[in-house]
Amino acid sequence: MSTKANPWRRVVTVAAILALSQGCKSPTVELNQPAQEGESALPVSDNDGGENQSAAAEVSSAETAGEAAEDRFSSGTEEPVNQPTTFEFDKLWNWDDFAGTESAFTELLAQLDADRSSDKNYRLALMTQIARVQGLQKNFEAAHATLDSVEKELAGASAVVRVRYLLERGRTLRSSGNPDASTALFKEAHEVATKAGETVFAADAAHMVAIVLSGTPEGFEWAEKTMQICKASDNPRLRGWLGPLYHNTGWSYIDVESFEKALELFYLGVEFHEEIGSDMPLLIAKYDVAVALRKLHRVDDALKILEELRLAHQQRTEENDQVGFVYEEIAECLHIKDRNAEARAYFALAYNELSKTWVREEEPERLQRLADLGGIARD
Asked: For residues 72 and 237, which has the higher predicted lDDT (pLDDT)?
């Protein structure tokens, strides 16, 4: 997925997470994780960063990407449940300070290693999260080394530990540039989690497969599977992932020019955020709809939504680095309608706003186009 195709991927992911709690920024949202470059992030505490590809999906979603875990790990669940098996240490996640999180985890690990009576599953699960935070800091060699240590002790470990190991090994491979090798691991994680009744981890794993295979028929099947898991659950955390999932999957359909399907999902995203009373995530969901409408040549319909968004953003008092995307989309619509003077003004506005954002560093050609169409001379 390219950032050009989905200018708000990063924003959306972050916003999607903000919808239910707080969030991170990133391109494709991974369930259960903080948003790093190119991944998706949803609640719980399982998720890692990926390559920087889109712009709103790689962050998190419902409960705040690292906020999840309330109860200490219990050795496993025989009966299927909708609450994930979690560990007390999950509360140590600080998605704004990965180095600090790693330090807290390693300090706790040292205490566990000194205590011979410590629970093996608890210690191994902690190590998977150390690997995860190492990967988020792009220290992939250390992450793999940590996971190698976990792998040596997997015999006899609980299903949850095996799932977390598989997820983090897969995320580390994907984030370090080897996504093909991660697919089988995510599929295995989904299978193990499903059999153990760990629905949250099953959804996390299914979504990771969908991300890796994004834009392919199988990828869409896994995306649909993830959404069905969330819809069927009575766990608020899982249901909270639906907004980001509608966004991510919709943009995947945009990328393959299946605009009607994208529009269908984007409308579901609007309904979702209206129902839960989201603020910025709702604006982003409406922006998604406007993009799909333009792609379907329904430019007047798109402009009606964009005008609503323009006014909504201008009324916001806090710092807003997202209005530039709305200006850009308005400009594209006006350009199509040959309202060139108005389009030129909005291209200039879009340039002025987006030049203050990540677009300057990550998409210089896009920014140059805005400057050219907006009549702005650059040094």
From this structure: 237
d(CA 224, CA 208): 12
Identify the burial level of 336 via C-beta atoms within 10 angstroms of its C-beta, where 0-12 means exposed, 13-18 middle and 19 or more buried.
middle
CB 189 within 8 A of CB 163: yes
Q: CB neighbours of 119 closer than 8 A, spacing ≥ 6? A: 73, 75
Tokens of 30: 């991974």
Q: Are 3 and 16 in contact (CB under 8 A)?
A: no
Q: How far apart are CA 61 and CA 31, in angstroms?
A: 7
- Three-state SS across 154-206? CCCCCHHHHHHHHHHHHHHHHHCCCHHHHHHHHHHHHHHHHHHCEHHHHHHHH
Kindly tell me if the per-residue pLDDT of 56 is higher than 50. no
| DSSP string across 290-307 | HHHHHHTT-HHHHHHHHH
Closest CA to 46 of 196, 191, 206, 154: 206
C-alpha 360/C-alpha 307 separation (Å) is 25
Q: What is the pLDDT of residues 161-208, one digit of tens each?
A: 999 999 999 999 999 999 999 999 999 999 999 999 999 999 999 999
- How long is the chain? 379
Alpha helices in the chain (DSSP H): 9-18, 98-114, 120-136, 140-152, 159-175, 179-196, 199-212, 217-232, 236-239, 242-255, 259-276, 280-295, 299-314, 323-336, 340-354, 359-362, 364-373
Alpha-carbon span 324 to 302, nearest angstrom: 16
Instruction: Say whether pLDDT at 366 is over 90.
Output: yes
Between vectors from CA 34 to CA 30 and to CA 36, what angle results, nearest 5°? 80
What phi, psi does 4 have (nearest 5°)?
-60, -45
- CA separation, residue 142 to residues 1, 14, 93, 145, 176 (Å): 28, 27, 18, 5, 12
Percent of the chain with pLDDT over 90: 66
Give the predicted TM-score (pTM) of the model. 0.75
When pLDDT is cut at 50, 70 and 90, the band that residue 343 belongs to is very high
